User: What shape does this take?
Amino acid sequence: MLIKKPSDILPSEITSETNYLNRRQFIRAGAIAGGAAFAPGALGALVPDQRGAVLPDVGKSPLSTDEDLNSYEDITTYNNFYEFGTGKDDPYRNAQDFEPRPWTITVDGHAEKTGSFHFDDFIKPFDLEERIYRLRCVEAWSMVVPWVGISLAEVVKSLKPTSKAKYVAFETLHDPVRMPGQRRRVLDWPYREGLTIEEATNDLSILAVGIYGKVIPNQNGAPIRLVVPWKYGFKSIKSIVRISFTERRPRTSWNMSAPQEYGFYANVNPDVDHPRWSQANERRIGAGLFTPRQPTQMFNGYGEQVAHLYKGLDLRRNY
Ligand SMILES: Nc1nc2c(c(=O)[nH]1)N[C@H]1C(S)=C(S)[C@@H](COP(=O)(O)O)O[C@H]1N2
Ligand SMILES: [Mo]
Assistant: This one.
């Protein structure tokens, strides 16, 4: 396994940090000269395009867990991102040359503000926040990740969905030249996911653009990916290029591939086993060989925030 030690990564980060500071000072000056371009005290989300650059003005959140964080190395070398291969370290190895710029996000369907947006323009109106969340993969491993992102609820509201919009669907980039894993039909590309509009506008849902205060690495879904921490990891779709407001439940990749194993809801649930393994407990990545598996929590421990969304729903049927 080719794993870069954190000590090998640092010098480039220091360089990008300097570049970033220059760019930011420039933008600040521009904002002042330009008058009321920004709301007072808020500059909006500025995401430098350099790899590993430090993200500016990241706020804290009461929604963060205080559990021990997984290391940057764990989070960025043990991944699921089939567009870059199906092995756990394939995304780390095969996504290095991926260029997540320029990046266009298309919004369509039942919303007033549809169209194509440059990544920078898309995220500019929103504040960056750190959200330290548990991530529970359907394969029964878990991590704690300090994401940096913007509120999906705020994004959805700003796009002004109409009363017909019952779901929000997402699509990953489809480009087998840039994403070599797409040359094999392991999934019906592009990767697709979706949420009900109530799930998408829950406080916990974010679009992540960073990890550990820095620009999100390619293997984790650069430049922008969904994070819905009460659901199995496969719902948290990476490298998003399309957001669609739909009236009907969108088709989603793992559900299309094996509907009896992966449902649309995919809420973390220790009482509903996967047909081929138990979901009662999980292996915390990085915990060490002799640490026992830990019990899985209902809704991955986020029941207080999300249980009301599923009142009256049979969670065994709607897995
Ligand atoms: N486009 C895309 N998004 C994806 C995946 C994928 O293969 N392709 N894998 C999913 C799965 S199964 C998990 S567990 C998480 C893993 O996120 P991480 O690698 O950042 O920990 O990403 C999800 N998002
Ligand atoms: Mo996963």
Remarks:
- The CA atoms of residues 254 and 262 lie 6 Å apart.
- Residues 79-83, 135, 137, 172, 191, 220-221, 233-234, 236-239 surround MTE (ligand 1) (CB under 6 Å).
